[in-house]
User: Fold this.
Amino acid sequence: MKNSITISAEFYFKGEKLSPSMVVDLDEHIKHQKTIDSFLPLLAQSNNMDLYSYEYEMLQAEELVYSDAQGLAKAFLNNGYFDSEGFEQAWHEQHITEAVSKIAKEHLDVDDLALQPELEMALIEAFRLGQQS
Assistant:
């Protein structure tokens, strides 16, 4: 399932009310950025704001509002606050579990790895060991 979230802010600049908003595809963002960095520059750029402008400085002073989370991100959205670090960790864990489940299916004919927690743990440990080297 696709993981996404809407990010927005609201502020006044030169007497005009601005409400920049954007939908972030969290899967693509993590794949390309490798981590979830501050969303402020993304929000500004997607709403045609120069990162070296007073308008951007005003945006920086505002608290971002998160809404409409999809997929795994839903579990990390609470009253407009998004636990991006928790989501990122869970996202990586989910991808590791999916990878080892595929290996278990292909090589061990195990349809549901969750039913064999010892095997699942061993495959995850082997996966992590491979990542370290």
